[in-house]
Amino acid sequence: MARLVFGMNQSLDGYVDHMAFGPSPRLFRHFIEEAQAQTGSIYGRKIYEIMRYWDEDHPEWDAERRAFGEAWRRQPKWIVSRTLKTLGPNATLLEGDLAEAARRLKAEWEGDIEVAGPDLARSLTALGLIDEYRIYLHPVVLGGGTPYFAGPRPPLRLLAHERIDEDVLRLRYVPA
Predict the structure, then answer these.
(1) 108 φ/ψ angles, rounded to the nearest 5 degrees
(2) Beta-ladder partners of 112
(3) 33 vs 30, 44, 46, 72, 78, CA distance in Å?
(4) In this structure, which of 14, 56, 61, 138 has its CB flanked by the most CB atoms within 10 Å?
(5) d(C-alpha 16, C-alpha 121), whole Å
(6) Residue 120: which region, alpha, beta or left (left: phi > 0; alpha: psi -120 to 50)?
(7) Is the dihedral of CA 99, 102, 104, 107 positive or negative?
(8) Which residues fall within 8 angstroms of residue 153, CB to CB, at 6 or more apart?
């Protein structure tokens, strides 16, 4: 049975913003390894449209970016959207009831399925379907924006913590 895992970079004050701070080379290498190991990803429309950048190689990419792009394109992607009609390679539109679709994916697949985006995570958290939360905590204060927990704040239990980079901690939580 697959597990749904929601993980994102987060500021000290609880916000996510991929434009305000990005991964160091060491953290990016970690994300490549995560992408290579995960079974697939469930995306909301907004994050999926941002991630479509990785659909094709770009001439300016270094070896690390090519590795991430290859890992991202390889894995299946399930997209939750009422408005998207066309998708990129290896992507499927999840239509109908979100809870039913997520439970079906968990039953039919093995390994970790990434949940991408705080809005989608909010919906899946409310349904009690996220199995693990991974917070990549950066020493940045944004003062506002999109919160990591965009909705329900579930009771959590710390599973593990580790320093990924000089200034970044990965905190792993499971529902309590």
Answers:
(1) -90, -20
(2) 3
(3) 5, 22, 24, 11, 20
(4) 138
(5) 13
(6) alpha
(7) negative
(8) none
Residue range 5-56, pLDDT digits in tens: 999 999 999 999 878 888 899 999 999 999 999 999 999 999 999 999 999 9
105, containing H or E segment: helix 98-108
134 and 172 Cβ atoms separated by less than 8 Å: yes
Helix/strand/coil for 13 = coil
In this structure, what token pair is assigned to residue 89?
């390679």
Q: What are phi and psi of 140, to 5 degrees?
A: -130, 140
In total, the chain counts a number of residues equal to 176
* Residue 14 backbone zone (phi > 0: left; psi -120 to 50: alpha; other: beta): left
Query: pLDDT below 50 — which residues of the chain?
Result: none
**Upper half-sphere CA count for residue 134 (Cβ side, 13 Å):** 21
What DSSP character marks residue 55? G
